[in-house]
Amino acid sequence: GQNIDQPTEMTATEGAIVQINCTYQTSGFNGLFWYQQHAGEAPTFLSYNVLDGLEEKGRFSSFLSRSKGYSYLLLKELQMKDSASYLCAVRDLSSGNTPLVFGKGTRLSVIA
Amino acid sequence: DVKVTQSSRYLVKRTGEKVFLECVQDMDHENMFWYRQDPGLGLRLIYFSYDVKMKEKGDIPEGYSVSREKKERFSLILESASTNQTSMYLCASSSESGETGNTIYFGEGSWLTVV
Fold first, then answer.
1. Distance (Å, rounded) from C-alpha A15 to C-alpha A58?
2. What is the mean pLDDT of residues A43-50?
Protein backbone atom coordinates (compact mmCIF):
# COMPACT_ATOMS: atom_id res chain seq x y z
CA GLY A 1 0.00 0.00 0.00
CA GLN A 2 0.94 3.64 0.02
CA ASN A 3 1.36 6.13 2.82
CA ILE A 4 1.73 9.83 2.05
CA ASP A 5 2.40 12.43 4.73
CA GLN A 6 2.43 16.19 4.50
CA PRO A 7 1.85 18.93 7.09
CA THR A 8 -1.76 19.91 7.62
CA GLU A 9 -1.28 23.67 7.71
CA MET A 10 1.41 26.27 7.11
CA THR A 11 1.49 30.06 7.28
CA ALA A 12 3.95 32.30 5.46
CA THR A 13 4.40 35.99 4.74
CA GLU A 14 3.83 37.67 1.40
CA GLY A 15 7.10 37.92 -0.52
CA ALA A 16 8.76 35.14 1.45
CA ILE A 17 9.75 31.58 0.48
CA VAL A 18 7.94 28.51 1.80
CA GLN A 19 8.77 24.82 1.51
CA ILE A 20 6.05 22.20 1.75
CA ASN A 21 7.34 18.70 2.46
CA CYS A 22 5.92 15.36 1.47
CA THR A 23 7.10 11.92 2.49
CA TYR A 24 5.82 8.71 0.99
CA GLN A 25 6.15 4.97 1.24
CA THR A 26 5.51 2.88 -1.85
CA SER A 27 6.88 -0.35 -3.26
CA GLY A 28 6.64 0.55 -6.94
CA PHE A 29 7.24 4.28 -7.19
CA ASN A 30 6.65 5.75 -10.61
CA GLY A 31 6.25 9.48 -10.20
CA LEU A 32 5.26 12.20 -7.78
CA PHE A 33 2.87 15.03 -8.52
CA TRP A 34 2.01 18.32 -6.85
CA TYR A 35 -1.40 19.93 -7.24
CA GLN A 36 -2.76 23.28 -6.09
CA GLN A 37 -6.34 23.57 -4.93
CA HIS A 38 -8.05 26.84 -4.07
CA ALA A 39 -11.00 26.67 -1.72
CA GLY A 40 -14.12 25.39 -3.46
CA GLU A 41 -12.28 24.61 -6.67
CA ALA A 42 -10.77 21.53 -8.30
CA PRO A 43 -7.09 20.64 -7.97
CA THR A 44 -4.85 21.90 -10.76
CA PHE A 45 -1.59 20.28 -11.81
CA LEU A 46 1.61 22.03 -10.74
CA SER A 47 4.54 19.69 -11.22
CA TYR A 48 5.75 16.17 -11.87
CA ASN A 49 8.97 14.46 -10.71
CA VAL A 50 10.03 10.95 -11.58
CA LEU A 51 13.82 11.31 -11.32
CA ASP A 52 15.83 12.69 -8.42
CA GLY A 53 16.49 16.40 -8.44
CA LEU A 54 14.86 19.76 -8.76
CA GLU A 55 12.30 20.79 -11.36
CA GLU A 56 11.80 24.53 -11.64
CA LYS A 57 8.79 26.23 -13.12
CA GLY A 58 8.67 29.96 -12.52
CA ARG A 59 8.12 30.75 -8.84
CA PHE A 60 7.44 27.09 -8.08
CA SER A 61 10.01 24.30 -7.82
CA SER A 62 9.63 20.67 -6.85
CA PHE A 63 12.33 18.37 -5.55
CA LEU A 64 12.44 14.59 -5.34
CA SER A 65 14.68 12.10 -3.55
CA ARG A 66 13.55 8.58 -4.34
CA SER A 67 15.98 6.94 -1.93
CA LYS A 68 14.53 8.98 0.94
CA GLY A 69 10.92 8.82 -0.18
CA TYR A 70 10.83 12.59 0.06
CA SER A 71 9.69 15.54 -1.99
CA TYR A 72 9.17 19.21 -1.40
CA LEU A 73 7.39 22.01 -3.18
CA LEU A 74 9.14 25.37 -2.97
CA LEU A 75 7.18 28.55 -3.52
CA LYS A 76 9.15 31.78 -3.94
CA GLU A 77 8.05 35.42 -3.81
CA LEU A 78 4.82 34.41 -2.19
CA GLN A 79 1.66 36.19 -3.27
CA MET A 80 -1.70 36.35 -1.55
CA LYS A 81 -3.20 34.28 -4.38
CA ASP A 82 -0.89 31.40 -3.40
CA SER A 83 -3.12 30.80 -0.39
CA ALA A 84 -4.48 27.35 -1.20
CA SER A 85 -4.14 23.68 -0.38
CA TYR A 86 -1.20 21.84 -1.93
CA LEU A 87 -1.64 18.14 -2.59
CA CYS A 88 1.16 15.64 -2.97
CA ALA A 89 0.30 12.54 -5.00
CA VAL A 90 2.25 9.41 -5.85
CA ARG A 91 1.94 6.87 -8.62
CA ASP A 92 2.69 3.32 -7.52
CA LEU A 93 2.92 0.54 -10.07
CA SER A 94 3.36 -2.30 -7.58
CA SER A 95 -0.30 -3.23 -7.92
CA GLY A 96 -0.49 -2.78 -11.65
CA ASN A 97 -1.77 0.24 -13.46
CA THR A 98 -3.14 2.02 -10.42
CA PRO A 99 -4.23 5.64 -10.22
CA LEU A 100 -2.57 8.34 -8.20
CA VAL A 101 -2.82 8.24 -4.44
CA PHE A 102 -3.15 11.65 -2.82
CA GLY A 103 -1.97 12.99 0.50
CA LYS A 104 -4.48 14.93 2.58
CA GLY A 105 -3.03 18.24 1.51
CA THR A 106 -1.29 21.17 3.15
CA ARG A 107 -3.34 24.32 3.61
CA LEU A 108 -1.08 27.32 3.07
CA SER A 109 -2.10 30.74 4.31
CA VAL A 110 -0.18 33.72 2.97
CA ILE A 111 -0.40 36.77 5.22
CA ALA A 112 0.57 40.37 4.62
CA ASP B 1 -6.01 22.48 -22.87
CA VAL B 2 -7.60 19.46 -21.30
CA LYS B 3 -11.24 19.95 -20.54
CA VAL B 4 -13.08 17.78 -18.04
CA THR B 5 -16.69 18.83 -17.65
CA GLN B 6 -19.01 17.77 -14.87
CA SER B 7 -22.66 18.23 -15.65
CA SER B 8 -23.83 19.57 -12.32
CA ARG B 9 -21.98 21.98 -10.06
CA TYR B 10 -24.43 21.92 -7.14
CA LEU B 11 -27.11 19.37 -6.36
CA VAL B 12 -29.49 18.77 -3.48
CA LYS B 13 -31.10 15.34 -3.33
CA ARG B 14 -33.30 13.49 -0.89
CA THR B 15 -32.30 10.36 0.99
CA GLY B 16 -33.10 7.30 -1.09
CA GLU B 17 -33.04 9.08 -4.44
CA LYS B 18 -31.01 7.73 -7.33
CA VAL B 19 -28.38 10.26 -8.34
CA PHE B 20 -26.41 10.50 -11.56
CA LEU B 21 -23.22 12.55 -11.83
CA GLU B 22 -22.02 12.91 -15.39
CA CYS B 23 -18.52 13.65 -16.59
CA VAL B 24 -17.17 14.24 -20.09
CA GLN B 25 -13.58 14.80 -21.22
CA ASP B 26 -12.54 16.09 -24.62
CA MET B 27 -8.93 14.87 -24.86
CA ASP B 28 -9.49 11.25 -25.87
CA HIS B 29 -8.02 10.09 -22.55
CA GLU B 30 -8.11 6.39 -21.85
CA ASN B 31 -8.40 6.72 -18.09
CA MET B 32 -11.19 8.29 -16.08
CA PHE B 33 -11.71 8.54 -12.33
CA TRP B 34 -14.23 9.52 -9.70
CA TYR B 35 -13.00 10.87 -6.36
CA ARG B 36 -14.79 12.36 -3.41
CA GLN B 37 -13.21 14.97 -1.18
CA ASP B 38 -14.14 15.56 2.45
CA PRO B 39 -12.55 17.83 5.07
CA GLY B 40 -9.78 16.04 6.94
CA LEU B 41 -9.98 12.98 4.70
CA GLY B 42 -8.55 14.33 1.47
CA LEU B 43 -9.25 12.87 -1.94
CA ARG B 44 -10.51 9.31 -1.93
CA LEU B 45 -10.90 7.19 -5.04
CA ILE B 46 -14.35 5.71 -5.62
CA TYR B 47 -14.06 4.04 -9.03
CA PHE B 48 -11.88 4.28 -12.10
CA SER B 49 -11.89 3.04 -15.66
CA TYR B 50 -9.13 2.33 -18.16
CA ASP B 51 -11.31 1.65 -21.14
CA VAL B 52 -14.85 1.67 -22.42
CA LYS B 53 -17.17 -0.70 -20.53
CA MET B 54 -14.40 -1.38 -18.05
CA LYS B 55 -14.40 -0.38 -14.36
CA GLU B 56 -12.32 -0.97 -11.29
CA LYS B 57 -13.18 -0.34 -7.65
CA GLY B 58 -11.21 2.28 -5.82
CA ASP B 59 -10.84 2.67 -2.08
CA ILE B 60 -14.47 3.46 -1.23
CA PRO B 61 -16.82 1.94 -3.83
CA GLU B 62 -19.62 1.00 -1.44
CA GLY B 63 -22.89 2.72 -2.28
CA TYR B 64 -21.71 3.74 -5.74
CA SER B 65 -21.63 2.33 -9.24
CA VAL B 66 -20.26 3.66 -12.52
CA SER B 67 -20.89 3.44 -16.22
CA ARG B 68 -18.57 4.00 -19.14
CA GLU B 69 -20.43 3.35 -22.38
CA LYS B 70 -18.32 5.81 -24.39
CA LYS B 71 -14.66 6.70 -24.07
CA GLU B 72 -15.31 10.35 -23.30
CA ARG B 73 -18.03 9.85 -20.70
CA PHE B 74 -17.85 8.39 -17.19
CA SER B 75 -20.91 8.46 -14.97
CA LEU B 76 -21.11 8.00 -11.22
CA ILE B 77 -24.35 6.58 -9.85
CA LEU B 78 -25.60 6.68 -6.30
CA GLU B 79 -28.24 3.96 -6.28
CA SER B 80 -29.91 5.19 -3.08
CA ALA B 81 -28.42 8.41 -1.78
CA SER B 82 -27.65 8.69 1.91
CA THR B 83 -26.65 11.67 4.03
CA ASN B 84 -23.12 10.33 4.45
CA GLN B 85 -22.67 10.75 0.71
CA THR B 86 -22.90 14.51 1.05
CA SER B 87 -19.56 15.57 -0.39
CA MET B 88 -17.66 17.19 -3.21
CA TYR B 89 -17.27 14.78 -6.13
CA LEU B 90 -14.42 15.20 -8.56
CA CYS B 91 -14.13 13.57 -11.95
CA ALA B 92 -10.72 13.30 -13.57
CA SER B 93 -9.03 11.87 -16.64
CA SER B 94 -5.53 10.98 -17.76
CA SER B 95 -3.70 9.55 -20.72
CA GLU B 96 -1.29 6.63 -20.93
CA SER B 97 1.00 8.68 -23.15
CA GLY B 98 2.75 12.01 -22.70
CA GLU B 99 5.75 13.39 -20.90
CA THR B 100 4.16 13.91 -17.55
CA GLY B 101 3.44 10.35 -16.68
CA ASN B 102 -0.33 10.04 -16.56
CA THR B 103 -1.02 13.45 -15.06
CA ILE B 104 -4.58 13.55 -13.81
CA TYR B 105 -6.75 16.48 -14.88
CA PHE B 106 -9.79 17.32 -12.80
CA GLY B 107 -13.23 18.65 -13.55
CA GLU B 108 -14.63 21.58 -11.58
CA GLY B 109 -16.33 19.36 -9.04
CA SER B 110 -19.92 18.62 -8.08
CA TRP B 111 -21.15 19.60 -4.63
CA LEU B 112 -23.80 17.08 -3.58
CA THR B 113 -25.97 17.58 -0.52
CA VAL B 114 -28.23 14.72 0.55
CA VAL B 115 -31.02 15.75 2.91
1. 14
2. 93
Task: Find, in chain A, the residue whose alpha carbon is nearest to that of B59.
Answer: A101
Model confidence over B72-95: pLDDT tens digits? 999 999 999 999 999 999 999 988
Kindly report, residue by residue over B28-52, the tens digit of the pLDDT: 999 999 999 998 888 999 999 999 9
Cβ of B108 and A105 within 8 Å?
no
Calpha distance A2→B47 (Å, rounded):
18
Q: How many residues are present in chain A?
A: 112
- Taking contacts as CB-CB distances below 8 angstroms, the residues of chain A near B105 are 45
B-chain CB neighbours of A41 within 8 Å are 108-109
Q: What percent of chain A has pLDDT over 70?
A: 94
CA B27 to chain centre: 16
When scoring A3, A45, A64, A95 by the number of chain B Cβ atoms within 10 A, the one with the most, hence best to mutate, is A45
Of B40, B90, B104, the CB nearest to A100: B104
